[in-house]
Amino acid sequence: MPNPPHSDEQDPAGPGGWNTAPPPPPGGIPLRPLTAGEIVSAAALLAWRNRVTCTVLAVAGNAAAAGCLLVLADLLPHTTTAEWLLFLSPAAAILLVTGYALVAATGRSIQGEQIGALGALRDCRPGRLLLTALLAAASVIAVWFAADALGHTAALAATVLAAVPVVTTTAVTLCVQAVEGLRPAAALRRSWTLLGSNLWRAFGYLILLTLLATAIFLLVGCLFVMWPPLQGVAAFLTSVLSTILAAGVLALLHSDLRARHEGRP
């Protein structure tokens, strides 16, 4: 049998006809450091792929938080700082668990897995999550009460300055807990390891997330501004969309930091 004609072109299938091209990432999201634009577009893509789980969690969580505020508005006064904390804390806890259940679902989706709403709630481990958040919030609240003697404005400024590093570091810590399932102390250590020299990058993504939430608020608000009776619907819809988008960005931020730390291409 005559030999096949020699060609200088490399067989795209690889030696022996085998395909040597790397397989696509399991979740369709590149497992490498991502740009800001890639994170935003990937967050929208992941939300669409998990639209049932994301919608159920976001709608249920925001409805529960809103209902909690309506009930407490008739039961608790909220004129002093302590009363405001009592008034807002239950709704904040509900939204925190909801958001990080969405982070857990999105994190699984990045790895090519799909889970439902109940599975996401189990994965985010609400007890550990709330304990870590309580420890972080306690440090910021302590700054408020310590600076309160200097006046309301000084206390507010000091609290904001204290909240910036706390929110930046705990955002990644809570992602580590939701996605990797670590206990609070181990999650804190893992968070600082992942952040390393990327603290400003994480802070920048949180600023980006704030801008995106503001854009959603303005867009949805413009759609309903001509119908005042539906402004409550607009506020609820804005909260649902912002919660879903925030979860996607935070999960992708965690994946991005892991890629940078572990040296994946």
Automatic annotation (TrEMBL):
Keywords: Membrane, Transmembrane, Transmembrane helix. It comes from Catellatospora bangladeshensis. It comes from the Bacteria. This is Glycerophosphoryl diester phosphodiesterase membrane domain-containing protein. The chain crosses the membrane at residues 52-72, 84-107, 128-147, 153-182, 203-227, 233-253. Residues 1-31 are annotated as: Disordered.
